[in-house]
Description:
Family: Belongs to the binding-protein-dependent transport system permease family.
Subcellular location: Cell membrane
Order of helices and strands: HHHHHHHHHHHHHH
Strand content: under 5%
Mean pLDDT: 81
CATH architecture of the largest domain: Orthogonal Bundle
Protein name: Peptide/nickel transport system permease protein
Largest sheet: none
Keywords: Cell membrane, Membrane, Transmembrane, Transmembrane helix, Transport
Number of helices: 14
Number of strands: 0
Radius of gyration: 24 Å
GO molecular function: dipeptide transmembrane transporter activity
Amino acid sequence: MSLARFLIKRLLQGVFVVWGVVTIVFGLRVIAPGDPANVLLPPDVGPEVRQQVIADLGLDQPLYVQYWEFVSGIALGVPEGLFNIATGQPVGGLGLGTSLTTGTSVASRVGRSLPATLELAIMATVVAVVIAIPLGVISATNRYSVPDYGATLFSLAGISTPNFWLGVMLIIVLAVQLDLFPTSQRAIGIPGVVDLLVSGQLVAAAEGFRTWLWYITLPAITLGTYFTALITRLTRSGMLDELGKTYVRASRAKGLPDALVRYKHVLRNTLIPIITVVGLQLGTLIGGAVITEFVFDWPGLGQVLINSINSRDWPMVQGSLIVIAVGFVVVNIVVDTLYTLVNPRVGFD
Length: 349
């Protein structure tokens, strides 16, 4: 199977996955307690006004009609049954509708928050991979030695440490007491750095990138610690399995340098499960950075999702979950494509 056919097949499968998520999200909105009209109206409003708002939201329609309008609105990019609180006019964005609490486009709000979450998730992944793979290799090639015991202890501590506690401790020690990093917020993002770079402000872009690194370091370490420990253990176990195979002994018998055998052959054959876990965990980090974003007041999608759940802003909740689901699908397609680059024996079939 060619790469093009493989991508088309996976994209079609991804469409069905996203459709399933959309259906589940719609079902959660239906069975969840509370009335969306309560978000828009004061408690003492009259029944006529309440019924009018429910009708404007389309909640008086049969469930199959609501479901069709919801799915078709997402598929066609047409807002259905939602309106701006201030103007009373329909407002949409990519068919995700309008926030019940702010009257702004869900797509624009999610779009403003998504870059911060992606930056945090990708940076946490980079931190994990850069630290974990060399640590796992050192641990596997020095089995039952001090480096091995140290890496094992680090992995155990990383997996056992709650990230919210680690985030608070990093803030207290490194930000408050030592004043090495900021305690919270995000002064500038990668899109801002790129804008400065495109406009030719090279010095300002370099300073902006340094500021971005300064602000994202503690959140990335907090979010990536568990991931680092997981990849370290996975790399160590995979390396140990590969080091005991016949081709390794044959390569060494031929006189190949140990570093060449270790990194070009053994580590490369270990990367398949690592890539799988990295891809799955990256998707998890995109949707699961809620606690870290809350601790560091990071303006990402996690905070938007939690605030929307607390305020019963279902259009915003639905839009956030759909974007996260699409992220999972895209990451999985990329991971499956990378398999063939790492191991040519893995085909697209």
